[in-house]
Amino acid sequence: GAVVSQHPSWVICKSGTSVKIECRSLDFQATTMFWYRQFPKQSLMLMATSNEGSKATYEQGVEKDKFLINHASLTLSTLTVTSAHPEDSSFYICSARKAGAHEQYFGPGTRLTVT
Amino acid sequence: AQSVTQPDIHITVSEGASLELRCNYSYGATPYLFWYVQSPGQGLQLLLKYFSGDTLVQGIKGFEAEFKRSQSSFNLRKPSVHWSDAAEYFCAVAPPPGGNNRKLIWGLGTSLAVNP
Questions:
Q1: Partners of residue A105 in chain B, C-beta under 8 Å
Q2: What are A18-43's pLDDT values in tens digits?
């Protein structure tokens, strides 16, 4: 149990376009979902925390107008990178947490390349 | 400030040898403690966790970790490493219940290489 999927696993887009990444909890309800960014050979950087039905809470330095997060249901959260630029190229990872739980379960990640 | 330190950036061991990955934390109270593994092309997988009770916790894939309050440490161990254990290992802590901020605080990771 506790499987999290992400789609797509990799995406290439042109500079100035937007791309949406989906994160789904397949066999549990996720009251909280997290979005991370990971640079090569580095740890995870938390971008935002989203609770189902509420606005996401963004970490300091993360542009909320650029990284739009929606958590419309207990099994789905989306991250939309708007007006993408090459510096947005990265590995984006989502995680999900059950109500009352403390551990997070992670998706496999999405590799975004902006050309 | 709250922080997690993994002193070893990279470790190489021979297959069959024992392994210990270090993790130290700085936190006001005893946090909840986690070890995750990230293999190439795969998502982070929870190896084990400590919330309370027995300070030696068993996890998946033959891993165990010991919580030592006096040393603020939560080191990960495995008695005999397999080639498939080569991966990136992350230690993370979370505030205990009652805190307003329940984000995970991550160490920088330890990259494990296994020689045949």
A1: 46
A2: 999 999 999 999 989 999 999 887 88
